[in-house]
Amino acid sequence: MYPKIIQEHFTYPKNVGRMKNPTATGSFSMPDLAKAVFYFLIEEGIVKDIKYQIAGCPFAIAVCSILSEYAKGKNVKELKNITLDTLGLFFEIPTEKEECINLSLNAFLDGVKSA
Amino acid sequence: MGRIIYLDHASTTPVDSRVLKKMKPYFTGLFANPATRWTSSISQKVDEAVEEARKNVAALINALPEEVIFTSGGTESDNAALKGVAFANRNRGNEIITTPIEHEAVLKVAERLQDFGFVIKYVPVDSEGFVDPDDVKKLITPKTILVSIMHANNEIGTIEPVREIGAVCRERGVFFHTDAVQTVAHIPVDVEQMNIDLLSLSSHKFYGPKGVGALYIRKDVQIVPYMDGGGQEQGFRSGTLNSTGIIGLGEAAKLGKEEQEERESCIKEFRDAFLKKILEEIPAVYLNGPNDDRRLPGNISIVIQGIRNEPLLVALNEKGIIAGGGSACSAGKKNPSHVLEAIGVPEEDLFSVIRITIGKDNKLEDIDFIVENIKEITNQLRALSPFWEE
Questions:
Q1: Residue B270 and residue B256: Cα distance in Å, rounded?
Q2: What whole-number distance in Å separates Cα of residue B290 and Cα of residue A3?
Q3: Are the beta carbons of A56 and B308 separated by less than 8 Å?
Q4: Looking at residue A95, what is its pLDDT?
Q5: Which chain A residues contact residue B331 at CB under 8 A?
Q6: How far is CA B95 from the centre of its chain?
Q7: How high is the pLDDT of residue A21?
């Protein structure tokens, strides 16, 4: 039903939750329908910690988890132009799930760009 | 695949093994077209079985066999009823009354009829989804030709006061159609007592096969057939009969009539125990629709605040529990349920609804397992959710 990587991250999402003193945050929402919030702890340009909150479909949840794993330890500059291809998500994205995936990606990029 | 606990019976039901057994001979040996009954002995046997099915369906709703027309299911029956009555009575008027909580098989047909000069009026529903028969009365004018109001709602389980609505229609000389897809064989349905002129039913909602249903048409009701051809079904519905399906529907109807009371009481017991447990176990959960005998025995529609229904349903499915949702998110666009909107569910809760619909084979001893899983997944999703504050 779902691509394997989505299934895995949806079932066991990594880095879930809020962060007390983030150095950057980003969010994106579709009012009353879905929302994603990312929290970053960035020291000297490096992502030391990352957390997120998400209310959305399994794709949106999984992509938050995948992004959080990818970003850890990376330089923020590298993350500013991230796309789904960068993440190695080489599965065919169902048209009706594009918006859900973009919700998570946009929240992430919102945080990265404000850092 | 491990054990499945199926809780989406309002969507469809499995075919009862006794129904399948009844159908089997009619796929191969007894395959002949019942229309050629005067010249073929196999056809005659098929025709006899079809007519037995018709009697069983008629008996289930207290109709005469000749008032039952076989169709392909609920959607076709609704189309045939609304379009059929509208076009046959165009000279009497052009107004049709319905509700905002009907199935799309009624709502979309009503919209289509607007293109042909018909005027659709919507009678409001209250916060539990009930229609007030007095409101129907107020909307009826000399131009009204048809009232179509469902017997019970598929999403929130509200059972409408169809008997009283039917009485209002009869008093004013207006035809009354009811979509009884969710009620036939589940709760008593009696077209005489309930003042019903046309009624839609569907086989797969009560342990019969998919792709077959029926439309009850009271003998004095005029309709224009929408499917012309060989003149089967008294000319109301041309096309070679789906005899195997019809025979399955007939058997499901017979069993439904015999076992209706017993099924209803078991299913209600499950519903009430489940609802009690889930409301106790999970905070910020509430029921949509009425919480009394005016609710379908097998329907539970609940809001679980702070989460979205889709990941919950997907995670439940992984545990072998299949339930249904309310509103769906489609292509990232809001596609809220028109029923939940009509009863005034707050916008932030529209995508937090799950629908559990119970069937005759669900087991009371599974309730703990189901509720525990819903609770665990809900806690996980709430921990993730920016909409949820402890």
A1: 19
A2: 40
A3: yes
A4: 77
A5: 95-96, 98-99
A6: 24
A7: 93
Q: Where are the domains of chain B?
A: 5-11+260-384, 17-256
Q: Residue B286 has which token pair?
A: 């509430």
The class level of CATH for B5-11+260-384 reads: alpha beta
Selected from 3.30.70.270, 3.40.50.300, 2.60.40.10, 3.90.1010.10, the CATH number assigned to the domain covering A4-114 reads 3.90.1010.10
Query: What does the pLDDT read at residue B328?
Result: 60
Angle at B307 between CA B306 and CA B312, to 5 degrees: 155
DSSP one-letter string for B59-87? HHHT--GGGEEEESSHHHHHHHHHHHHHH
More confident: B348 or B335: B348
Active site residues of B: 329
Residue A78 distance to chain B (closest CA, Å): 26
Q: Do residues B58 and B67 make contact, with C-beta atoms less than 8 angstroms apart? A: yes
Mean pLDDT of chain B: 95
| Residue A13 · residue A65 · CB < 8 Å | yes
Q: What is the DSSP string of A34-59?
A: EEEEEEEEEETTEEEEEEEEEES-HH
pLDDT of residue B334: 66
* Topology classification of domain B17-256: Aspartate Aminotransferase; domain 2 (3.40.640)
Phi/psi of residue A9, nearest 5 degrees: -75, -25
- Nearest beta carbon to residue A34 from set B308, B318, B331: B308
Q: What is the pLDDT confidence band of residue A3, given thresholds at 50, 70 and 90?
A: confident
> For residue B331, is pLDDT > 60?
no
What is the arithmetic mean of pLDDT over A49-56? 96
Interface test with B, best of A33, A37, A63 (most B CBs within 10 A): A33
With an 8 Å Cβ cutoff, are B350 and A17 in contact?
no
Task: Assess A83–B contact: CB distance below 8 Å, yes or no.
Answer: no
Question: Domain segments of chain A: what residues?
Answer: 4-114
For the ranges A55-59, A99-103, B175-179, B230-234, which has the lowest average pLDDT? Answer: A99-103
